[in-house]
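Pasting as-is:
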Amino acid sequence: MPDHDPLDFAALWHSIAAQDSSGRHQAESDLAFWEENAQHFDQWHSDQEATSRAVAAVSGLITDDVWTVLDVGAGTGRFALPLAQQVDQVTALDASPNMLKVLRRKVNERGSKNIQIVQSEWAEFATAQRFDLVLAAWSMYRQPDIMQGLRKLVDMTDKLLVIVDGDGYQTPDRRLRREIWGGATKQTVPRAVLYLAILWQIGVRANVQTLWETRHTSGESLHELAAQLAPKDTTVAEREQFAERLAPFTNRDEDGTLHYQAQIPFSLITWRRHEDHAFLRAKGVTSTSPAP
């Protein structure tokens, strides 16, 4: 039996997070991961289709009355840098010094003058300011208190809140990785469903749109593919096992190159304050009333 009320969506969220074999639902472990992988993350995500699609989707939501942006979990700037070209001010918030070190370098290289960088955990960040657009892209899924984290996003939103995240879908390569190196995991509730439910619990009716990215990896052999997709510091025997099990999901083109392609859904969750006043009043929510 579950150790939470069946309709307590925040408790369900944390119950699922606690099953993460990486242990990164603990704040210290998650921060250590980003500290170690900041440079690799920046290089890898600069070429990801999901980044370009998500940035384009968020960019398309910016209207003429959006002047200020808060980017929660800004990382190395995959959203902050392009959005800064559309608005007056971007506040880029992240807990990882190494991630922000990469962002500072990129800001200096580009000569961006309207990006304010703040190192802080989201739970500890405090300001009296409200922002026209509050963005949390792939940054809320390991919050220690998801309901409080989402409530804080809402409270700091003056016009538009945008949350971007995956939906828990396991591509073949990720499923095999977990089975070989991290223990098999079951399919869980898509995170977008839980975001909508938890936001509803705090009096916010959000919308969700599903976007798709295609991740493509190519190589001359299965072993070359496996080397690209397997975790770091694995043994030859483990990579051979991974390559063998990955084979059914690959195809070879006319010139002999081997390809692995995965279609991955991710969610764009949006909430506009001015569209939700009646519902907020009906739910008795007063802390999210418009700023004077």
